Automatic annotation (TrEMBL):
<feature type="compositionally biased region" description="Low complexity">
    <location>
        <begin position="578"/>
        <end position="590"/>
    </location>
</feature>
<dbReference type="InterPro" id="IPR047738">
    <property type="entry name" value="SAV_2336-like_N"/>
</dbReference>
<dbReference type="InterPro" id="IPR002182">
    <property type="entry name" value="NB-ARC"/>
</dbReference>
<dbReference type="InterPro" id="IPR056681">
    <property type="entry name" value="DUF7779"/>
</dbReference>
<dbReference type="Pfam" id="PF25000">
    <property type="entry name" value="DUF7779"/>
</dbReference>
<dbReference type="InterPro" id="IPR011990">
    <property type="entry name" value="TPR-like_helical_dom_sf"/>
</dbReference>
<dbReference type="Pfam" id="PF13424">
    <property type="entry name" value="TPR_12"/>
</dbReference>
<dbReference type="InterPro" id="IPR053137">
    <property type="entry name" value="NLR-like"/>
</dbReference>
<feature type="domain" description="NB-ARC">
    <location>
        <begin position="653"/>
        <end position="807"/>
    </location>
</feature>
<dbReference type="Pfam" id="PF00931">
    <property type="entry name" value="NB-ARC"/>
</dbReference>
<feature type="domain" description="DUF7779">
    <location>
        <begin position="893"/>
        <end position="981"/>
    </location>
</feature>
<feature type="region of interest" description="Disordered">
    <location>
        <begin position="33"/>
        <end position="78"/>
    </location>
</feature>
<feature type="region of interest" description="Disordered">
    <location>
        <begin position="220"/>
        <end position="249"/>
    </location>
</feature>
<feature type="compositionally biased region" description="Pro residues">
    <location>
        <begin position="43"/>
        <end position="66"/>
    </location>
</feature>
<dbReference type="InterPro" id="IPR027417">
    <property type="entry name" value="P-loop_NTPase"/>
</dbReference>
<protein>
    <submittedName>
        <fullName>FxSxx-COOH system tetratricopeptide repeat protein</fullName>
    </submittedName>
</protein>
<feature type="region of interest" description="Disordered">
    <location>
        <begin position="549"/>
        <end position="614"/>
    </location>
</feature>
Length: 1469
């Protein structure tokens, strides 16, 4: 009983109440206000908040300087950290998030408010995790503790006159939390993450206690593992297991934080421990690594559906929906990423049981793990290859930086913090787990004064070659400066960096310094130049120290000295630029240029020491050296596709001198390239090749380009882009323009030489010349028309002395007179001379006999030639060549018929390199017995190729593992075959090409498809009737499309479709499949009407086809193409109908988890959004996105695409800040996992730009929009829809950033382009007109704006309807035009009508609705209705502040009474 000491009440009471009753009432009121706010009065919480009865009390802030949740006493050195729930009477010191009710405080006898501590808001990630765990905030009646029910006590006193307490069970938090922290050595980088997670778990306020158990998973776990008690935690309860001490009817959650690397995960003792814990508690694994890296660890979860019987039930009680037992009898344990979305799903899983069950990724402890055989020890090159292929770009960049430093954990974190202050420990974890490092001795990796890690032998050198010179130097200096504060000799090493060539000062003769000296030596070698002398000095010091150790005077260093350290790094020298290329990251075995640049004259080769250091070529990850760094005689840094040098090259010195003089003179490369032209077989390519090898040191870059077909040129330039370090990916439509621009500007290299070999068609090759620039171009061609575009050098046959010299060099020791006779018979043709020399060498035939046989063969050739000419068959080879080769071919047919048939098959390939992959491991193909015998036996295949090579009929390139046949040899071979033989051998070529089809058109296989394409064209494979060959042809059309060669895809696809329509029929499924890809190509090229007609016809034929029908996969896919064509025509209604039908059929046929169904859901959502149905679009995209995240992973392209479109739906529903936050997260994922030129990446960036603008971040928006526009311009040729809509977005960004003139210019351009691309009545065109009208009005051109909006609004009404959001925006802006022209009545009428429709269609709080309300208030004010205007304005302004925040530019403008302008974006298709 509490009484007023003054004897008077503080309030006026009713007359029938005495002072005691009033005092009691006041006392009860105070108690209830402090303790039990749910009875009688609602708490100040939003209606959507959970009932206060379920709200647990919040945890108090920890005292300053103590760990979260720790009590007053200092922690003991061993044991378990227990973070208890706050005392019931304490008030929470951490503020609730906006809109959340404060936790309930429970009163005892006397309420004593706890002192309020300064609350520090947790980081955004912590807040997100805390929100994710909200479903766990539950309370339950305590089985042991009671509290006074004051209301019941008062009622009892009122009824019975007795003040006896009535008690009820205390509402307490329902669950304990045990965080099991993996203390394995690889987890050391996650220690801060552990602290943050503990803070989140405590601040969440969902658990009675939060305990931390630390268990070392580096060792197998015993049956009941006791935690590692060596850490700075306090033991409580003495439990050996995380599930010990669970009270009766109590619930406990166990989260295991791990990276899954420790030995306990490999030998499954860790999984068995999880199974034991899961029988008694709710257990889950928190994986610190991204899901994409889980398969490299010992935790490989599977997707399962579980049914939880009740909230908080142990995993052991979880059931499968079908009632079957769990595999192995052990319950599943969910595996989660340490991210809010994953934790939220888990919290929902364990707190909200579903009768149907929920899907989750879970470890099945009862299923034995798959056993892998131990691989042999990888080389340094293989280690770097694998790491580059799997690591994130930021992790690889960090690894190249760490290569410049001695390593321990503090140093690693210091280096990371230097360049990425907000860097993730995940990058360090990738490096520690990536196979690059090894632990050194027993050193503590957390000891900054020691070296805890060392790169495996050869790895540091490779990584240094991938880094930047100045950055490596800066890192080493910074690290030595930091470490030298504890050990002064390291400052001596730091100071030596300023004078690398000077003598080293005296250093302590201690083994402790040796590893630091080794690191500095390796960095010096990578820096090269003046640092090489310092590298030699350090190397000598290291060797001297080791010599003393071997002599017994000093113990040797445990780190062995690699061999050949003094001269060069063998592993590093073997790595070429292509190793670091994008091809190699995707597929280390993919084809690449393996030739190395020749040693310049007077310089040693790769094995010797070069004045600039060892040959470690520049990689795609490294900036190219400045031009002035090259010295005379240095080989080119970039050297690609150049064939091996011909050691038997003879003569041609005058031609070489002329060519060198021409190429050395001043001139613009694109205007006057040098062209070698002449007949086939005269040695044009050999002359160009010899020139390149002789003068390689004159150039920074030399690139050889096969130029017979456009796709060959594109492939070569794509490879060059990678070697130049342009980071533009492998798509030709992006890489090729980037390369040409880089060569034009001379960055990163100035003196470059491009060799276009076999460039027959001037119009085909010339578009691939850089438009100017400091480099040179060399062309070889049989086409004399090159004289119109180049300064030509004609190449003729040998001089007689050159012929004799080649015969004497290649052939036996012939008398001069006999060599002269052979040369005369062969007409001095170089190709024939080389073949004759090979024949004479291999057979030993006397010259007289050779000439006799030659004349007989020539007579046969002449007869056959006359027959062919009489039949109208063109013959493009000279008789001497055919006669010389006939001799070899006849000998081959007699002694090795299988080799001859292999040669005949190759004659139908293109005269380009043929990969030996096509001939290896051929099985189950129908070929002749002789040829099958050769192809099915690798020994016989090798023998056959050697036999062919003996007679100089092919050239073998052992570096690239290819063979190549001259076009004249092919012509002779084909001319000798009968029509039936030609058909058989041509079909054999088709079958071998189909066998080489990877049948997977992904970037890793693009080089293989590029190689196949020229041979497919040459062999006319599109005419083959073999189904596997036709499948390969279809794959090649798809390859050209996804590779970015849309024009090539249209040309080749058109040829295929036309050929197959005639041979297979228009309604053949194969013809229709090729036609569908052709339709995609036409759409990409902007030929929308042609694509629409083709797609409609395909759909019609598929629906009528007996083997297809309505539910066929191809039919459903074609429905999407037809729907897209409808959208591009502006027929949104038909598009929605088709997409809905397609999605419904996909769900029924494939299931809702199939990737194709997810794609159909994506397109259906886009169609709904185009119709303005943002709510339904959000539902479709949300469901598909959640499914994709589980089925495909969070970082899959489909998940990222759906997330991007979902954020657009959310923005369309008016939730600008939510949409922006979601898209920021999506874009961050895209940055980590998607190449920056990929369409999904550009789409995510563009969408984020719009989200930022809508959220009020105008500067951030314009920056991203410009980047997206640059990416589109790099990818496509104008006019293009993506470019134009991005320009429209940029015009709005410019307007928001006060550049009205720029906005007007770009807005007019986008409007004109859209009228051309889509037509004047398309909704996108109308949107561009609406946006431009706003800019015109702001520039004072109100009459023009009014006219444009009046023209546009009826089009919107006609095409989309009067209540479509785009129509409403146009109407709102039109009213602003009228208002500006003082037509207030008209503006008022239009705004009144628009506001009513906005409220009905968009909702009361949608920003467009609020903008219309603000504008209507201005109309009312202008019409003198001030009171109505004020009420409407105040209501809209208050809603603006609540929806967009008080700081949003729209809110500020509304507060100032400025009319609101609305804009329209063009969503991507």
């Amino acid at each position: 009983m509490t009484q007023d000491p003054g004897g008077r009440s503080s309030q006026r009471g009713r007359p029938d109440l005495d002072w005691q009753q009033i005092a009691d009432a006041l006392w009860l009121t105070v108690c209830r206000a402090e303790t039990d706010r749910e009875a009688g009065r609602p708490a100040p919480a939003p209606p959507s908040a959970a009932p206060p009865a379920q709200e647990p009390p919040r945890a108090p802030d920890p005292p300053r300087g103590s760990p979260p949740g720790a009590e007053d006493e200092a922690p003991e050195p061993e044991g378990e950290l227990v973070l208890s729930a706050p005392r019931p009477v304490e008030l929470v010191g951490v503020p609730a998030p906006s809109g959340e009710p404060l936790g309930q405080a429970v009163a005892a006898d006397v309420v004593t408010p706890a002192p309020r501590l300064a609350a520090v808001s947790p980081p955004t990630a912590e807040r997100a995790l805390s929100r994710a765990l909200r479903p766990l905030r539950r309370t339950s009646p305590s089985p042991v503790a009671n509290e006074v029910d004051e209301e019941a006590t008062a009622e009892r006193a009122a009824r019975e006159g007795l003040w006896l307490p009535s008690c009820v069970p205390v509402r307490e938090r329902w669950m304990d939390m045990v965080l099991v922290v993996d203390r394995s050595s690889s987890m050391v980088v996650w220690r801060r993450t552990v602290d943050h997670l503990v803070t989140v778990l405590v601040r969440t306020g969902a658990f009675r206690t939060v305990s931390v158990r630390r268990i070392n998973f580096d060792h197998p776990l015993p049956a009941d593992p006791a935690g590692d008690r060596s850490g700075p935690v306090r033991e409580r309860g003495g439990g050996r297991s995380p599930v010990d001490g669970i009270p009766p009817r109590g619930k406990r959650a166990v989260l295991v934080l791990t990276d899954g690397i420790g030995a306990a995960w490999a030998d499954e003792t860790g999984k068995r421990a999880l199974a034991r814990w899961a029988r008694q508690a709710t257990v889950a694994v928190l994986h610190v690594l991204n899901q994409g890296h889980w398969h490299h660890t010992g935790l490989t979860p599977e997707r399962v559906r579980v049914r939880v019987p009740e909230p908080g039930a142990p995993n052991g009680t979880w059931q499968r929906p079908d009632g079957a037992p769990w595999p192995g009898g052990e319950p599943p344990v969910p595996v989660l990423e340490l991210e809010a979305r994953w934790l939220h799903r888990w919290a929902q899983l364990v707190t909200r049981p579903s009768a149907r069950g929920r899907d989750t990724l879970a470890l099945l402890p009862g299923v034995p793990a798959e056993r892998w055989e131990r691989e042999p020890e990888p080389t340094a090159r293989e280690r770097v290859f694998r790491f580059r292929a799997t690591a994130s770009p930021s992790a690889f960049k960090l690894a190249s930086r760490l290569a410049a430093a001695p390593l321990n954990i503090p140093v690693m974190e210091f280096v990371q913090g230097m360049h990425e202050p907000q860097g993730s420990p995940g990058d360090l974890a990738e490096i520690l787990l990536g196979g690059l490092l090894r632990k050194v001795g027993a050193a503590d990796p957390m000891d900054e004064t020691g070296i805890g890690y060392e790169f495996h032998q050869g790895v540091r050198e490779l990584l240094l070659s991938a880094g930047m010179r100045d950055e490596s130097l800066y890192i080493l200096r910074s690290v030595l400066d930091r470490l030298g504060r504890r050990w002064k000799p390291l400052h001596v090493l730091r100071d030596a960096l300023n004078h690398p060539s000077q003598t080293l000062p005296e250093l302590p003769d201690t083994e402790r310094l040796l590893p630091y000296m080794r690191v500095q030596e390796q960095v010096y070698k990578a820096l090269s130049g003046p640092y090489l002398e310092g590298a030699r000095t350090f190397h000598a010091r290291v060797l001297a120290h080791q010599a003393l150790g071997r002599s017994g005077e000093r113990r040797g260093d445990p780190v062995e000295d690699p061999p050949n350290r003094g001269s060069s790094f063998p592993e590093a020298a073997a790595v070429t630029d292509s190793m670091m290329s994008r091809n190699s990251r995707s597929n280390p075995s993919s084809p690449k240029d393996e030739s190395s640049p020749p040693s310049a004259h007077g310089t040693p080769g790769a094995a010797g020491e070069h004045p600039r250091g060892s040959f470690v070529p520049v990689t795609a990850a490294r900036s190219l050296p400045a031009v002035e760094e090259r010295r005379a005689g240095d080989p080119p840094a970039i050297w690609g596709n150049v064939p091996p040098r011909n050691n038997n090259f003879t003569g041609r010195q005058a031609l070489l001198d002329t060519l060198h003089e021409r190429l050395s003179s001043e001139g613009t490369a694109a205007v006057l390239p040098e062209a070698l032209h002449g007949l086939g077989g005269v040695g044009k390519s050999q002359i160009a090749l010899e020139y390149v090898h002789q003068h390689a040191s004159d150039y920074d870059a030399v690139w050889w380009i096969p130029a017979e077909r456009p796709e060959q040129i594109r492939q070569a330039l794509v490879q060059l882009a990678d070697r130049l370090g342009l980071h533009v990916g492998q798509e030709s439509n992006i890489a090729v323009p980037s390369v040409l621009e880089a060569l034009r500007t001379g960055r990163p290299c100035r003196d470059w030489l491009l060799v276009f070999d076999n460039a027959e068609e001037l119009e085909t090759v010339r578009p691939f010349f850089p438009s100017g620039g400091p480099g040179r171009i060399l062309v070889t061609s049989r086409n004399a028309q090159w004289s119109r575009a180049a300064r030509t050098v004609e190449v003729d046959v040998f001089d007689r002395e050159e012929s004799i010299e080649l015969l004497l060099r290649r052939g036996p020791e012939l008398p001069h007179e006999q060599a002269d006779r052979v040369a005369d018979a062969l007409g001095d043709l170089p190709l024939a001379i080389e073949q004759a020399a090979a024949w004479l060498t291999e057979t030993g035939m006397p010259v007289d006999e050779y000439l006799h046989v030659f004349e007989d063969e020539r007579a046969d050739v002449s007869t056959r030639r006359a027959e062919l000419l009489a039949q109208g068959v063109p013959v493009d080879y000279p008789e001497p060549v055919a006669a010389a080769w006939n001799m070899s071919l006849r000998r081959l047919s007699e002694h090795h018929p299988g080799a001859l048939q292999l040669l005949q098959v190759c004659s139908f390939f293109a005269p380009e390199p043929i990969s030996r992959r096509l001939f290896s491991g051929v099985r189950g193909v129908s070929l002749s017995p002789e040829l099958s015998e050769v192809l099915q036996d690798p020994i016989k295949l090798g023998h056959a190729i050697r036999e062919i090579n003996r007679y100089a009929l092919i050239k073998i390139n052992h570096r690239n593992n290819t063979i190549e046949m001259h076009r004249l040899v092919q012509a002779v071979l084909i001319g000798q075959m009968s029509p039936q033989q030609q058909a058989d051998m041509r079909h054999g070529a088709h079958v071998l090409l189909a066998y080489g089809d990877p049948n997977d058109v992904t970037p890793v296989n693009w080089p293989r498809y590029a190689d196949l394409l020229s041979h497919v064209r040459a062999s006319r494979a599109l005419e083959c009737d073999d189904k596997w060959v036709r499948q390969m042809v279809r794959n090649l059309i798809r390859f050209l499309f996804v590779w970015g060669d849309h024009q090539g895809a249209r040309e080749f696809g058109g040829q295929v479709v036309e050929t197959w329509r005639q041979s297979l029929g228009e309604d053949s499924l194969e013809t229709l499949a090729a036609s569908r890809t052709l339709g995609h190509t036409l759409t990409a090229l902007g030929h929308y009407e042609e694509a629409r007609e083709l797609n409609d016809r395909i759909l019609e034929l598929l629906r009528a086809h007996p083997q297809a029908g309505e539910n066929n996969e191809d039919t459903i896919a074609t429905m999407g193409a037809v729907a897209n064509s409808a959208r591009l025509q502006g027929d949104y209604t038909r598009s929605v109908e088709l997409e809905k039908d397609r999605w419904t059929r996909a769900v029924r046929v494939f299931g809702d988890e199939d990737p194709y169904t997810l794609g159909a859901a994506n397109d259906y959502g886009l169609a709904l959004r185009a119709m303005g149905d943002f709510k339904r679009a959000q539902e479709i995209h949300q469901s598909a996105r959640d499914t994709a995240a589980i089925v495909l992973g969070e970082d899959s392209l489909t998940t990222l695409l759906l997330s991007t479109h979902l954020s657009s739906d959310i923005r369309g529903n008016g939730q600008y800040h939510t949409a922006r936050a979601m898209q920021e997260e999506t874009f961050a994922r895209a940055v980590r996992s998607v190449p920056p030129n990929a369409p999904v990446f550009i789409n995510a960036m563009r969408t984020l730009a719009v989200a930022r603008r809508k959220a009020g971040d105008h500067e951030g928006a314009i920056e991203l929009t410009r980047q997206a526009l640059d990416s589109y311009r790099l990818r496509y040729i104008e006019p293009n829809l993506d470019i134009t809509t991005a320009e429209m977005n940029l015009s709005m960004d410019l307007r928001q950033n006060a550049d009205l003139a720029g906005a007007r210019e770009l807005g007019m351009k986008s409007l004109e382009d859209l009228r051309i691309i889509l037509g004047p009545r398309h909704p996108y065109t109308s949107s561009a007109a609406t946006n431009l009208a706003v800019t015109l009005r702001l520039l004072g051109e109100t009459e023009e704006a009014l006219a444009l909006n009046k023209e546009t609004l009826p089009v919107f009404v006609d095409t989309l309807g009067a209540d479509h959001p785009s129509t409403l925006v146009c109407a709102i802006n039109l009213a602003s035009d009228l208002y500006t022209l003082a037509d207030y009545e008209e503006a008022h009428g239009l705004d009144t009508e628009s506001l009513a429709v906005c409220r009905e269609r968009l909702g009361e709080d949608h920003p467009t609705t609020l903008a219309c309300a603000v504008n209507l208030s201005a109309d009312l004010r202008a019409l003198g209705e001030s009171r109505s205007a004020e009420e409407l304005h105040n209501d809209a302004l208050e809603r603006f502040r609540r929806v967009l925040s008080a700081q949003h530019p729209a809110t500020i403008a509304a507060a100032r009474g400025i009319r609101a302008d609305c804009d329209l974006e063009a969503y991507t298709y």
